[in-house]
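cron nightly-structures :: item 1 of 1
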Amino acid sequence: MRRVLGSVRARATLAASVVVAVALAAAGAAVLLSLWTNLSEQAGTEAERAAQKVATDIASGQSYGDLSLDSDDQPVQVVDGTGRLVAVTEDLERISGTGVDRVTPQAPGAVSGGDDDDDGDGGSDDDPHEAGELGEASFSDGSATIDGDTADYRFAAVPVEVDGKGTLTVHAGAPLTAEQEAVSTALTVMLIGFPLLLAVVALVTWLVTRRALRPVEDIRGEMAAITASEDLTRRVPVPDTHDEVARLARTTNETLAALEQSVERQRRFVADASHELRSPIASLRTQLEVGAAHPELLDVGGAVEDTVRLQRLAADLLLLARLDAGERPADARFDLVALVRTEAGQRTGDRVAVSVAADTADSLEVSGSRGQLARVLGNLLDNAQRHTRSSVSVSVRRVGEWVLLEVADDGEGVPAGERERVFERFVRLDEARARDDGGAGLGLAIARDVAVRHGGALTVREAAAGGALFELRLPWPERPAGGR
């Protein structure tokens, strides 16, 4: 049960049902209120017309006994200014809501000037009265019992001014039975129809949500199968739509493709690293075994060379592992020009002397790891020394918001089709592999990774002398306030 209620489909269905139920309840209440108000106003209008008719008869001089008050469903009361009931509908047994609960006319004597027929017994006045004025009607709700039938009424009270009798008030009621029946019928229809409508909404929402989420379930199932099989060549199905689910499927497949490439690179890396490590280790072991059996044949220089090569390779692999793990460079500032001059000055054993050129005598500061950028410069210089004929140059300059470090040689250069491939790990061009002092193919890969980690880039193009020109681009840091 918890699993069902915890699904997106169940939550969507429940939410839609609740929203529709609230909307239906509000709409139903508004409809019932509007219906009752309109019907009550109609009943009030009917009661007002009845009261005005009686008031008009009174104003025209009719006596109380001659008033037409014998209506089967409209109770009428005529009350004088002192609150005395002077005329009433026949067979009226009980009334409430008019302010006068009496249903029997009272004896005369409360009206000044006297009226021989004010007792409501059917007598007539000998002298006609002049017409009076009708006042504005007021309304109230109440109930009345006529000839044993009790019902709710809407009462209208119309005052009328009559000469010689003062102000009389006519109370007339219109039954609310039809209004109550109409509201009751509407309420019954709502109580029956609204649950059915709500059930239809819930069912439609459930079916539509299931159909909409079916591709998501397919994606989930395929991802579970991929996880179980560890087969990263598989892809999730992409629905033939243009909605968020289709975009999710495409993004998932892109992620799987990137993950597959990453795993494949890792496998190649491990295989290449094992191959590169095997050669110096095997050579060193052979030399040590020969030296152990025949000390006079021990090649100490070769063993040292293999050991150094092995040490460098282990250092390169360790640095790549740290870079792959997301290690962030230090956020320190240092002078790149001074770093270049220091590194170039220490390369006294290089085959070709390194020349350094800077477009300013001032410092060019960059932010990052001095050690890692020194490693980048060393790798670029090692690569240039392996391929150059007669010259290796390093230049440092600022261009806009960037600091450029360029290492150029006059060798054969890098073919245009290989200028991205040279930055892949363990990649060495045929010429490099033919050299005895060729590296393991990690130097340029490390250099580019470090450049990217520092927010820069490393590219290669043709140098002016025809060789290769490697350009390291690093962001120019914002100087603090007060800086030069």
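cron nightly-structures :: done
The chain has three domains: 54-178, 244-322, 329-475.
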